[in-house]
Amino acid sequence: MTTSAPGVVNHPKSADYQRIATEEAFAPAEMLDIYRKILEKGDADPGFKGLMGFYMSSPSARAQHIMRCLTDLDQLRIQHMDECGIDKQVIALTAPGVQAMDKATAVSFSQVANDQLAEAVRKHPTRFVGMIAVAPQDPVAAAKEIERGVSKLGMNSVIINSHTHGEYLSDPKFWDIFAAAEAHDVPIYLHPNSLPANMIQPFQECGLDGAIYGFGVETGLHALRIITSGVFDRFPKLKMIIGHMGEALPFWIYRLDYMHRATVLSKRYDSMKPLLKKPSDYLRENFFITNSGVAWEPAIKFSQSVLGVDRVMYAMDYPYQYQVDEVIAMDNMSMSAEDKKKFFQTNAETVFKIR
Ligand code: 1DF
Ligand code: MN
């Protein structure tokens, strides 16, 4: 089987910007061993079974290829980056990361994974940038790991794969994590997870629970819960990143603002409190988005127009969406040279403190 991107015929031309891909995934073999044990026990979430159960056992070319790419942090990955003209990958532990594990395993394995990633970044300092994986199951330990990731491993961003066993970061019990991210000035990339047990059925029965739709619905919901719970009033300098064109939230802005105000004014829910600003203000001031999985010029232009050109970044979602034709399509967007460089390179350099 070829290891190249499907249909690599044209390589992207060299450009007057670097291409920095910002939502790229890896999986240590040791994590897959832990996942195998969780799957063998038989009581795993249906979402975890549906996602990792599939990728780890399917004989399909897609699954086999993805598993092989995920576990490599060396020559194979760099070969694929070269074929697609990707100068740098910002790499994170693949979903669900440690969030599918029990608390103790999650805390200790997050450190193992971060050490492995840091080692790969030390080996390939011009090609790889790492995100800090944390275990939300233990918010105090997660805050400590953020501190260690920044001060000892030189990493400047955090990955969290949406909900943790159905719990959302809008719950103040998790807010030590936000305090640490704000204090160290590192953004949190809120990446999708498989859907929680109490949400998955109407999606899974028709095959819409995954990256096709369910991921976006659930991660968008999570980002909104963080906004409406008042996290950014409490942590005004906190930065978050969401992929997949902001999980469609830019398109929702008008309705979110209108209905948030109407709902708060009518005191309909105790759980929906007044905020200092409109929901869209937090999207514009606290969030960055990436176009992972959405190599589509109209969506990118729309998002730039409503969030600002400084807030939209390039991502490939390697190895889940490894398509050289998409890189070429993004190169060919009709966009000023200045804005295209922001999209591909300089916004990521600023957000991830890449020097
Ligand atoms: C898939 C997509 C899996 C994305 C991912 O991680 C992932 C997929 C497990 O297609 O099953 O990160 N994604 O971000 O779109
Ligand atoms: Mn992804």
Q: What does the average pLDDT come to?
A: 96
Which regions have little confidence, pLDDT < 50, spanning 5+ residues? none
DSSP helical segment count: 16
Roughly what percent helix? 40-55%
Number of domains: 1
Determine the strand fraction and express it as a percent band: 5-15%
Overall spatial form: globular
The CATH homology group name: Metal-dependent hydrolases
The termini sit apart by 37 Å
**What is the β-strand count?**
9
Return Rg in Å: 19 Å
**Could you give the order of the helices and strands?**
EHHHHEHEEHEHEHHHEHHHEHEHH
Profile the largest sheet. Answer: 6 strands, parallel
Give descriptors for this structure:
355 residues; 9 strands; binds 4-hydroxy-3-methoxy-5-nitrobenzoic acid; binds manganese (II) ion; alpha/beta; TIM Barrel; 16 helices; 6-stranded parallel beta sheet
Structural write-up:
The protein is α/β, with parallel strands linked by helices. The chain contains 16 helices and nine strands. It has a single domain (20-252, 279-351), classed as Metal-dependent hydrolases (TIM Barrel, Alpha-Beta Barrel). The protein has helices at 29-41, 46-57, 61-70, 75-84, 103-123, 139-151, 175-183, 201-204, 214-228, 231-234, 243-247, 249-265, 279-286, 297-307, 324-331, 337-351, and strands at 20-26, 88-93, 128-130, 132-133, 158-160, 188-190, 240-242, 287-290, 312-313. The strands form two sheets. It has a six-stranded parallel beta sheet. The longest helix has 21 residues, at 103-123. Bound molecules: 4-hydroxy-3-methoxy-5-nitrobenzoic acid and manganese (II) ion. Manganese (II) ion binds next to strand 1. Manganese (II) ion (MN) binds next to strand 1.
